[in-house]
């Protein structure tokens, strides 16, 4: 039997030519601005109406969500470090900050040592508590949502987002700050964010890979410092880093104040 008969039927693909050569030929054609046909056509992401905050920020309940795999020590719910098909919810217990002795990371898409040294570099609890104390936000929701977004398919990322969105809505959350890490994890985070926004809850996605988030279409995007520590900078002293994180959170919350006009579909990106 001809081995090619077992290949998936994709229009205009010459399977007699090795995949490596086909890939290089397409790359060269693109470089020389010549026409070529991709073998993996991407389905466009669905546009949704971009929601605005329905109440004053000073009265809003803000939740934190991450695709960066932060879990309590011991990973009690066995969150898979790749292609996770579930999310976990953990109480903050009213804590003023996250302590390294209490948390670890289940995620194989980035160097996790910086987050394990200081989990606030992924979930900025210390800065959000300060915003709460100073009356900038109404309340920090005392539960955070976490999954490991690396290598997660579009279908699974969307399904995760649908379930997280319903939970947030049922908990009367008004807005979400969503922190993201590596490439496919950022895509997963953006898919989660879009499903949250579909239910009318505005999302600020904080990621170093803003183009990926923008391609999915989440409404408000803030460029984070690095895929390994979006809300931190290990080169700074502890005091300087907390100040840096405070300013980052301020930028994220400022994005919530922006009123997006009906039918506007372009992402708003803050550097």
Automatic annotation (TrEMBL):
<keyword id="KW-0712">Selenocysteine</keyword>
<dbReference type="Pfam" id="PF07355">
    <property type="entry name" value="GRDB"/>
</dbReference>
<keyword id="KW-0560">Oxidoreductase</keyword>
<protein>
    <submittedName>
        <fullName>Glycine reductase complex component b gamma subunit</fullName>
        <ecNumber>1.21.4.2</ecNumber>
    </submittedName>
</protein>
<dbReference type="InterPro" id="IPR010187">
    <property type="entry name" value="Various_sel_PB"/>
</dbReference>
<dbReference type="GO" id="GO:0030699">
    <property type="term" value="F:glycine reductase activity"/>
</dbReference>
């Amino acid at each position: 039997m001809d081995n090619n008969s077992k290949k998936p039927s994709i229009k205009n693909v010459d399977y007699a030519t090795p995949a490596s050569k086909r890939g290089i030929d397409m790359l060269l054609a693109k470089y020389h601005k010549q026409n070529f046909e991709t073998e993996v056509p991407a389905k466009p992401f669905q546009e949704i109406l971009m929601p605005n905050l329905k109440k004053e920020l000073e009265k809003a309940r803000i939740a934190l969500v991450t695709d960066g795999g932060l879990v309590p020590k011991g990973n009690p719910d066995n969150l898979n470090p790749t292609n996770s098909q579930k999310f976990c919810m953990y109480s903050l217990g009213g804590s003023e900050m996250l302590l390294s002795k209490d948390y670890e990371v289940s995620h194989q898409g980035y160097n996790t040592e910086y987050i394990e040294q200081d989990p606030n570099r992924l979930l900025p609890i210390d800065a959000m508590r300060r915003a709460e104390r100073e009356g900038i936000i109404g309340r920090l929701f005392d539960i955070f949502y976490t999954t490991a977004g690396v290598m997660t398919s579009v279908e699974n990322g969307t399904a995760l987002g649908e379930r997280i969105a319903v939970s947030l809505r049922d908990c009367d959350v008004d807005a979400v700050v969503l922190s993201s890490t590596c490439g496919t994890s950022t895509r997963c985070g953006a898919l989660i964010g879009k499903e949250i926004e579909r239910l009318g809850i505005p999302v600020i996605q904080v990621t170093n890979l803003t183009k990926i988030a923008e391609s999915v279409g989440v409404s408000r995007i803030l460029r984070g410092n690095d895929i390994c520590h979006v809300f931190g900078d290990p080169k700074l002293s502890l005091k300087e880093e907390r100040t840096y994180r405070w300013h980052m959170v301020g930028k994220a919350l400022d994005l919530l104040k922006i009123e997006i006009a009906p039918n506007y579909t372009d992402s708003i990106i803050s550097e």
